[in-house]
Amino acid sequence: xxxxxxxxxxxxxxxxxxIARDHNEMFNAASAALCLFMWDQDTVxxxxxxxIVWYGFDIPTTVVGLLSELLYQMxxxxxxxxxxxxxLEEVDDLDERHRxxxxxxxxxxxxxxxxSARHRVRFPVxxxxxxxxxxRAVEEGVRLYCVLDA
Length: 150
Prior knowledge:
The chain is an alpha+beta fold. 22% of the residues lie in helices and 46% in strands. It has helices at residues 23-38, 59-75, and strands at residues 3-8, 14-20, 48-56, 78-91, 102-113, 127-138, 141-149. A four-stranded antiparallel beta sheet has the order 1-2-7-6, covered by helices on one side. 27% of the residues are buried.
């Protein structure tokens, strides 16, 4: 089972560290940790399933993109409890802007529409920052470190 930890980042923001067995578990745990950081999870129900698809050039850009897409959806009136990866695959969808293979992550975010009478924001997050993001192999599997602009 994945673990997560939040700490003050020395350069500003909130550091989020995830230790997981593999990349799929890392994506799921990072999404759940982001939701836990932002929302009082006791108030969030899994009434809706929202399909999420994101592309990145590698694992780091894909995880930042996925977390940013979840933030976008939350800005658009959703609250989530978790995200479950259905597939993570290399795709050849090349076009004029993207001249190399990309990673495609597909999955489902579970949550509901925001209700100000029930849902309590714990800590608002404006962005997931790419510059200090690190994904590397560790004895337990894979470690993700990223900074939340919170």
